[in-house]
Design brief:
single chain, mainly alpha, D-Maltodextrin-Binding Protein, domain 2, four-stranded mixed beta sheet, 4 strands
Length: 422
């Protein structure tokens, strides 16, 4: 155990003190700090844009004669539209004596970014430049306003004694009184995507680190010296745990960077993206969910790291490492894709997949958050994954013991099994 601890310390310090590790960590931390500060930069840029361009779109509204004849279309005036459509300055086309046939030319000549013409009914004309996607941002608002105007116009033909009843009936809408019981699935749903992507990239990157470390020592003949000072199983465990601690160190700095950026810019996120601000401030992550996420992350790392270490020991050259890591890479890709596809697959199939160790870290979290897996299912899944880690570690130790002393042409699977049995 003492020798394993020495190897873990050696592997850990070897990674965290490397210039590439430090530089990569700093780059990730700085980029994420900048990403979480986007609202601050957006505020500066939008302020500059407003000084240069005026910061508002120019639009014109023209109401046809039928609107005035029938006294409908209230709420479509320039002043009212300006209050509803943020960032747009509306001009009253009727006051300017603009004609309908002039609207197209006014937009083409960039006098206005878009123009709106309404003459009753449910149809209206909307003129906008096809190369300006922002000009279509107001369509949803105009649709709602024209719908109300058309209803008002239709009510003009209804007898006055029943008009109030018709208006009251037409205004009836459904309202859901949501009562959440036994969980925060709505708040925690996002963790599935973040967790899956995070786990995938960490396993892909640090799994290859384990393989390259083994291959490098074999290439430099260092393994022949190490094997006389420690048992193969101690070497393998030391590498897997050492690289794992380095991964947690880097992940810790990344999380710290994200947390710092969000803390410094939290108030600005409210105006920039209210949905994200609400998610950050109102989400109630349960302690059990966080604990399960950490446990699945660690067990998932060990499961794949042992496979990477075992397969890395069977080759003698760095260029051969890519050929033996195909298996864990394909398993990772499959698990990553299934974690997203599981929301649309048959629940029985997803349940079975969640108890298969290579897929458990990814899919079991989805099932738990979605409510398809309770506490018992999660604990069973963790137990199965732990058993899978133990089995993989035992097989990996057998392969590692034989593989670290193999040089030359990589040994095939059949030959490797025969050697292990002997």
């Amino acid at each position: 155990m003492k020798r394993t601890g020495i190897i873990i310390k050696f592997e850990y310090l070897g990674y965290v003190k490397a210039k590439s590790f430090v530089i990569t960590t700093l780059i990730f931390a700085i980029l994420l700090l900048l990403a979480t500060s986007i609202p601050s930069f957006a505020g500066l840029l939008s302020g500059t844009a407003e000084k240069v361009t005026g910061g508002e779109s120019k639009a014109v509204v023209l109401l046809g004669p039928n609107v005035f004849d029938k006294s409908s279309g209230q709420g479509l005036e320039a002043e009212y539209l300006g209050a509803l459509t943020k960032g747009t300055k509306w001009t009253d086309g009727n006051a300017k004596k603009i004609k309908q046939e002039d609207l197209k030319g006014l937009v083409e000549e960039n006098d206005y970014d878009f123009a709106f013409y309404y003459d009753g009914g449910t149809d209206y004309d909307y003129y906008a430049r096809g190369d300006n996607l922002g000009a279509y941002d107001q369509v949803a608002v105009l649709d709602a306003l024209v719908t109300e105007a058309a209803k008002e116009e239709a009510l003009l033909g209804v007898p006055e004694d029943v008009r109030n009843d018709v208006e009251e009936i037409s205004g009836i809408t459904a309202s859901c009184n949501l009562i959440s019981i036994g969980g925060e699935a709505g708040d925690n749903f996002w963790i599935c995507y973040v967790f899956a992507m995070f786990l995938y990239f960490v396993l892909m990157m640090y799994g290859n680190f384990v393989t390259s470390s083994v291959v490098t020592e074999k290439t430099s003949k260092t393994m022949e010296l190490l094997i006389t000072a420690a048992k193969p199983i101690e070497l393998m465990m030391g590498k897997v745990f050492g690289v794992g601690l380095a991964a947690l160190t880097q992940v810790g700095f990344i999380i710290l960077s994200v947390g710092t950026g969000l803390a410094l810019n939290l108030d600005k996120w409210k105006e920039f993206q209210p949905g994200i601000w609400s998610l950050l401030t109102e989400s109630k992550l349960s302690i059990s969910l966080v604990v399960f996420a950490v446990v699945l992350f660690l067990l998932g790392y060990f499961f794949y790291a042992f496979i990477y270490a075992a397969l890395g020991s069977t080759v003698s050259k760095p260029e051969e490492a890519a050929t033996v890591t195909v298996l864990p890479i394909m398993l990772l890709i499959a698990a990553f894709l299934l974690s997203f596809l599981s929301f649309g697959l048959n629940k029985a199939i997803v349940a079975v997949l969640s108890y298969i160790p290579p897929f458990t870290p990814f899919i079991m979290m989805n099932r738990y958050v979605r409510g398809d897996a309770g506490l018992t299912s999660m604990l069973i899944g963790i137990a199965v994954l732990f058993a899978g880690v133990m089995l993989v570690a035992w097989v990996a130790a057998k392969i590692y013991r034989v593989g670290v002393m193999m040089y030359g042409k990589p040994m095939g699977l059949v030959s490797l099994i025969k050697t292990m049995r002997q």
